[in-house]
Specification:
single chain, 236 residues, alpha+beta, Ubiquitin Conjugating Enzyme, 2 domains, four-stranded antiparallel β-sheet, 7 helices
């Protein structure tokens, strides 16, 4: 019964994947599966022809489908390596993703379902890595922006730093007020001295050596001089 079911499934698969199936033996073949992933992550940014492809190797055991098929995964020969998918490293995870499908379909033809499941699992893996890469880029961009913003942002204010700043500010205000008061006192003293000098009499200025003789004093000295000359003449 297994052989007949295997032949029937194989005929159906030929009609579904006319260009994707390659026979190895009567009971073994491989199916080429092209993955639909974002063009941004295709090889060298080329079109869909360059999108990643994986090969599902299927071998029927004698009792298939009552027994699980033997499966393997590989990359096409000479295929360029996709930046987000490494068939050799990812093979265990991809094969593991098929186990539930196998268990649920024992006793029934399951290769078409396995192909669909493998395609979905591989595309999901690429998508997860794509999102992780985008998140990392966004994180690095945000980090760089934060570093740039720090150049224009002062130190964060805490309660302690604010109190310290306020104390320094108050001290600076006290010192500034003191300096202004001292300057004012010096200026006031200068004005008082100038005002007092204006109020002094001619004699006070003379006594203090602040001015020359007055006109009245010159006239008195002149009169005294003439009187002396008259006396000298009389005596002669």
């Amino acid at each position: 019964m297994g052989i007949e079911e295997q032949k029937e499934e194989r005929e159906v698969l030929d009609s579904i994947f006319p260009d994707e199936i390659t026979d190895v033996t009567d009971t073994e073949y491989r199916v080429s599966i092209a993955l639909d992933v974002s063009p941004d992550y295709s090889i060298d940014g080329d079109d869909a022809e360059e999108l990643p492809t994986i090969l599902l190797h299927v071998r029927y055991p004698p009792d298939y489908p009552d027994e699980a098929p033997e499966l393997d995964i590989s990359a096409p020969s000479n295929a360029p390596k996709h930046p987000l998918l490494d068939i050799q490293e990812d093979k265990p995870r991809l094969l593991e993703s098929l186990q539930t499908t196998i268990e649920e379909n024992i006793g029934m033809a399951m290769v078409f379902t396995l192909v669909s499941t493998l395609k979905d699992s591989a595309e999901l893996l690429v998508t997860e890595r794509q999102k992780a890469e985008e998140a990392e880029k966004e994180f690095e961009a945000a980090k760089a922006e934060e570093e740039e913003n720090r150049k224009f942002v002062g130190t964060a204010v805490t309660k302690k730093s604010f109190l310290e700043w306020r104390e320094r500010f108050r001290q600076e205000m006290v010192e500034e007020e003191k300096r202004k008061q001292e300057e004012k006192e010096i200026e006031d003293k200068k004005r008082r001295v100038a005002k007092e000098e204006k109020k002094l009499t001619g004699r006070e200025l003379w006594e203090r050596g602040l001015a020359g003789k007055t006109d009245e004093e010159d006239e008195e000295e002149g009169a005294d001089g003439l009187e002396g000359l008259k006396r000298l003449k009389v005596s002669g």
